[in-house]
Amino acid sequence: MSALLSLHDVWVEYGDKIVLERVSLDIAARSFVSVVGPSGAGKSTFLRLILGQEAPTRGEVLLDGKPLRRECDADRGVVFQRYSVFPHLTALQNVMFGRECEQAPVTGRLFGSRRRAAIAEAEAMLEAVGLEHSRHVYPAQMSGGMQQRLAIAQALIKHPRILLLDEPFGALDPGIRLDMHALVTRLWRERGLTIVMVTHDIREAFKLSTRVLAFDKRRHDPHAPHRFGSTATYDVPLDRKADDAAGTVADQPGPAIAPATALSLSNEEAE
Ligand SMILES: Nc1ncnc2c1ncn2[C@@H]1O[C@H](COP(=O)(O)OP(=O)(O)OP(=O)(O)O)[C@@H](O)[C@H]1O
């Protein structure tokens, strides 16, 4: 399968601090990749590279074999742990916002038939995430789970091929997380999305994904911690398939390699 996204020997440095080093990997279309690793391992930086918010200091990031555009276009949608939605807009207005900015970049408003089409599309998107009865509700009146559903609808209204999720369920209660797992799995399958998700929850990563990447440092300099960056120390393909009809999001047993072991092994390997 050809790669949708390719990173070739990517490094990210801030001054003399190396955050990522030698990251080389391909991400196939319609895969669901989870990124795990200790705090500060560069997981969000990796996501920002794919989003185009961050340029590699060295190396290249390719989308469909071509250098990634710096600005985030309709190819990529993103949902963060919090603050993805606009507090002063209702659910419907939040979802329509993307359409209005795209189609009326100067005024930010649509009129007539284009407005009616945008409303219909936004309502369908709200229904897809289970918020059809909350279209006139403001984010402050919603639970955390509802706000994340709204953020997902907002990200998907532009029909991105790639959905980037940065700790999207981190602030949610366990029961709500399970609902969100089912929602994201359904949207991933139905819409043929490619998902890259950063999570601290290793079980969530192994449950939802087709592939788990563990980022960590292979080399440590105790006298200069910033001297070496993280890379994908473990790259674990899983059996889960987007078109696997039987593949529900039921809890699965833990990974074959305990993640803590995997991460510590990676350091030993490097020595
Ligand atoms: N603009 C920046 N300038 C300097 N250092 C930065 C910048 N952005 C990120 N960093 C550093 O890069 C490192 C990786 O940050 P990043 O947020 O990608 O890690 P992370 O793995 O997502 O962490 P966490 O799990 O805690 O969210 C951190 O040490 C952070 O301080």
TrEMBL record:
Source organism, top-level taxon: Bacteria
Keyword Transport: yes
InterPro entries (alphabetical): AAA+_ATPase, ABC_SmlMolc_Importer, ABC_transporter-like_ATP-bd, ABC_transporter-like_CS, P-loop_NTPase
Keyword Transport: yes
Region (Disordered): 243-271
MF annotations from Gene Ontology: ATP binding; ATP hydrolysis activity
Keywords associated with the record: ATP-binding, Nucleotide-binding, Transport
Pfam families: ABC_tran
Residue ranges constituting the ABC transporter domain according to the UniProt record: 5-242
PANTHER family: SPERMIDINE/PUTRESCINE IMPORT ATP-BINDING PROTEIN POTA, SPERMIDINE_PUTRESCINE IMPORT ATP-BINDING PROTEIN POTA
Official protein name in the record: NitT/TauT family transport system ATP-binding protein
